[in-house]
Amino acid sequence: MVSESFPDPHPRRLLITGGAGFIGSNFTQYWCENYQSDRVVVLDALTYAGNPQNLANLKARDNFHFVRGNICDRPLVDELLKTEAIETIVHFAAESHVDRSILAPDAFIQTNLVGTFTLLEAFRRHFPRIAENNPLFLHVSTDEVYGSLNPDDPPFTEMTPYAPNSPYSASKAGSDHLARSYFHTYQIPTVITNCSNNYGSYHFPEKLIPLMCINILLGKPLPVYGDGQNVRDWLYVLDHCRALETVIHRGKPGEMYNIGGNHEVKNIDLVKMLCAIVDELASDLPVRPSEQLITFVKDRPGHDRRYAIDATKIKTELGWTPSVTVEEGLRKTVRWYLDNRHWWQPLLSEEYQTYYQKLYGNSVL
Fold first, then answer.
1. Which domain holds residue 34?
2. Can 99 be counted among the known catalytic residues?
3. pTM above 0.85?
4. 38, 95, 99, 144: which is the annotated catalytic residue?
5. Is 168 a known active-site residue?
6. For residue 76, how many other CB atoms are within 10 A of its CB?
7. Which residue among 30, 35, 146, 168 is the active-site one?
8. Which of these is catalytic: 44, 87, 143, 239?
9. Residue 144: active-site member
10. CB under 8 Å to 144, separation ≥6 — which residues?
11. Going by DSSP bridges, is the β-strand pair 256-259/294-297 parallel, antiparallel, or unpaired?
12. 76-121: pLDDT as tens digits
């Protein structure tokens, strides 16, 4: 996906946290492709969802630098900001799976709250050195901080009160509040974005869409929580990258911007769409039609019923709208998983299988 034209007075120097993860790696690839004169530094701890293969093609570039490290490591963050003369932080690094936050919330508090605080404090100390260079701290967050909607409720806006319902969303809500406070207290130019559910390439297999794609290809059960009527607004990851690009160039410090795909779909309907697409595109499925693999499993605790984003603000103020329909995006995503078995097959480790046994019993793998 080619970038829009955003004239820049000078090349940027970006620190992208969590840049080896799903959204982070898509954004890193997008930025390096479209802004080849910018310096891009990725900081990633390479936990289970961070994959260095996502960025392997960038290693030879002179303007790209990868650092394995934790955002909670203050001396490391300080050193990177100083030696790389970082002007823009794009902060993706986070523990992000609700199911994992239910089983083990500790890491979510440490990474999402303490890690964000560490970055903000380091950037605040670094700020005087780069104050004249249009600095920005972009905090990438989630619509889950707003809680759950009833079927007839209007979508979330930037004025919707926070009401997180899981340790994951609560930790992200806390990090949002920290980012907001650093603008109002210290005048650090922070911007917060809250996006709906992303999907696309390089997505770790535990999440709904890659899990379904991979299990169909393997002939394994397709676990659907509860009655499958939970609704999510789906955003193709490269549309999200375009939105973040727009915010970096046109966003106003101290503001929040909701980013949505304008595609509300029930989970069960999404799974059936994926089954139909995989059945069409894959010739060697062990089970066909794959819809017969759908298996309803016990609902998870605190499962939000519906998310929906009102993206009017970013459309009217910054000029961004999603360009990829959910049907088009799902086909692109399925094709990627078909063409990149070498990427996802090693991720189905013993640890991964043990984790999913805890979630679904014998329903998966």
1. 13-199+236-260+303-323
2. no
3. yes
4. 144
5. yes
6. 17
7. 168
8. 143
9. yes
10. 98, 164, 165, 166, 168, 169, 172, 304, 307
11. unpaired
12. 999 999 999 999 999 999 987 777 888 889 999 999 999 999 999 9
